[in-house]
Every structure is written in C-alpha cells, then in structure tokens.
Amino acid sequence: MNLHEYQAKQLLAGHGVPVPKGVVVLAAADAEAAAAALDGPVWVVKAQIHAGGRGKAGGVKVVKSAADAVKAARDILGMTLVTPQTGPGGKEVHRVYIEQGVAIDRELYLSVLVDRASKRVNMMASTEGGMDIEEVAAKTPDKILRVVIDPAVGIMPFHARKLAFGLGLKGGQVRAGVKLMIAAYNAFIATDASLVEINPLVVSGDDVLAVDAKIVIDDNGLFRQQEIAALRDESEEDPSEILAQENSLNYIKLDGDIGCLVNGAGLAMATMDIIKFHGGDPANFLDVGGGAPKERVVEAFKIILRDPNVRGILVNIFAGINRCDVVAAGVVEAVKEVGITVPMVVRLEGTLVDEGRKILNDSGLAIIAATGLADAAEKIVAATREAA
Known about the structure:
Blueprint: H1 5-14, E1 22-25, H2 31-36, E2 43-47, E3 60-63, H3 66-76, E4 80-81, E5 91-92, E6 96-100, E7 106-115, E8 120-126, H4 133-139, E9 144-149, H5 157-166, H6 172-190, E10 193-204, E11 207-210, E12 213-217, H7 226-229, H8 239-246, E13 250-253, E14 258-262, H9 265-277, E15 284-287, H10 294-305, E16 312-319, H11 324-338, E17 344-350, H12 353-361, E18 367-370, H13 373-387
Parallel strand pairs: 14-16, 16-17, 17-18
Antiparallel strand pairs: 1-6, 2-3, 2-6, 4-5, 7-8, 7-10, 8-9, 10-11, 10-12, 13-15
C-alpha cells in the first residue's frame, strides 16, 4: 500500500523525524487558507500522486509569496501528470501539499527497506540526494552506504553514526542525523513498512530533516494498521485491482492482450513467462487461489474482460487442493454466465484431469483445450493473432 508524501511525513513526524511544516489541500478554495498558515519567505507546492518524477512533469513549484502559492495550487489541482512511473496515461492530481520552504545546504539520500538477500533490514544512505537511487547505484555504486540491521536487535547508535560520518555530517549535524535515522527505523518497524525513503534528506545548518518522503506499507501487515489502512487513496489505484481485492483475488494489470486466469502465484508467473516465450504479451497477473469457488472464477473473468486490450484468455489450472472436474464445471458455468466472446484456451492438470477435460469438451462452448503449458501458450498466442 502506497502513501502520499504528506501522509508519509505525518507518520514520520509522529515517530520523531523532523519535517517541514505543511498543509494538504483537496480543493482550490482551501489553498488561500493553507498558504496563509505557513511562514515564508518560500513556499513549495507539490502535486500528491503515487509516482515519482513529479517535479520534471510540472507538479512541483517553488514560489516566493503566498499569493503565488495559491495560484500554483490551483494550477496543479486537476492536472494530469505524466512521469516515468505513471505510464503514458499519467495520473490526475486530486490533492496538493503546500509546504514551508527550507534553506538547503546539502541534499542527501536515506532509506530503510527489507533486503531479501541478507534477510535483514537495510538502511541505505548516499551523498547523492535528489537523484534516483537506481541511477546512483548503476553509475556510482561506491556512493551508496549501507548498514545491515538484525531485526531481533534493532538499530543501534553505531549503525546511524557510521552512516552519518559516511555522509560527511559534522558537529551538531551528526547528532541530528543519528536521531533522525533511529526515528526513521522506528517508524519503519512500527508501521509494518516495506520501504521508508527520504529523498532528499536535507542538511540546513545544524538541522537534518526530511524534505520529501515515501512510505510503502506491507499489505500483509495492514490488519495491524487500521489507522494507516484508512489512509488508502483508491483514486490512485486501478479500479480492477480494487475489485479483485474485494473478491479475494490477486490481480495486477499489465500492458499485453492475453488475459491469464491461474491458480497459484508461482504458476501464474510461469504462465506469463511462457506466453512471452511464445511471442505473446500477458494482460494481467491473476491468481484465483487453490480452492476457488465458481463465484470467484466468475468475478475473475469479469475483471479480466474489463480490460479493453484483452483479445484472448488462457486458463491454466493445476488441481491439487481441488479436482479438475470441479474446476472444469466452474469454468463452464462461469463462461456461460459472463458470456465470453474472445478466444479462450484451458489447460488442466492434476486430480481427475480426464474427467475435467471431458466436461470442457462436452460443454458445447468454444473452449480450446490444451494438453500442456507450452501447448496452451502456443494455442492462445495463435488464437489471439487470428482474432486481431
């Protein structure tokens, strides 16, 4: 679950991370009061969307009067920002954050994240603040500092001091930096985050503070984070993905034209890979789960067909928890109910597979049966091309 910048800063501030004072604006009529609540001489007006690169797309304005801040807020609200992370369609701005400006001496980078390689929490820092950390890692990996933190022990002052000295902090900056890093780690743990990123982390005199922030919450921890779950902005999410969550489906929209309905995340990944291998493009990742009832299969088909780019569907089921005859009957009923008009290939394997295939063959529906995963991929790619 992604948070907006202002939400991330509120959470960080609650754990002791210094952040500039700011006010979120949801309607243009509120911009004047928000700007008046902040002291100058500089105001920063930022579009709030779940994507980076806002500044390059015109979504961040630095102004020197409250009146200009109000104008910038009104201009940005309703804009469609297109950044490398939004895709070509961009995202419409529904809220802006007006923030008090900061005198910047240096811009740094700091993040806390789960590192699967070390199976630990990593805190990363760099002197190259304000830049994409991926670009820094690719071009100047020596400028990335990192400490590995055992979650059973937690962050220790020496972890933070190592990074503070590596960033070139001096005097009071070291104390401020160490305090901020410990607070950022505590926020990471307390919120069940998978990422806390502060970029840039700004040095201003002896102060060190978070001028921009990103937090990603692990969905698996949201049952413990009801207050954070309430911050979810569904306008920033794909409607089909929201509908899938409501129906206990794991769905991610992709850019291809072959819809995938699979039981099991690993099998879904393999299915997408083999579609690509045979020259096709998957339109989605969709895992219906091991024992999906007919009702869930129906909703899965509906969600797949919400995508206008879908020109064919591959159903790939390995029946272990349930039986192929039960799955096949559910697929047949679902197809009749939904009224699927695009080509569909079904591959079944597992318990009572022969009975399942017979149900499909006797259904009278235009279902193309496949005997293996490669065969299924070849057939759906060919059928989709013919349909085009």
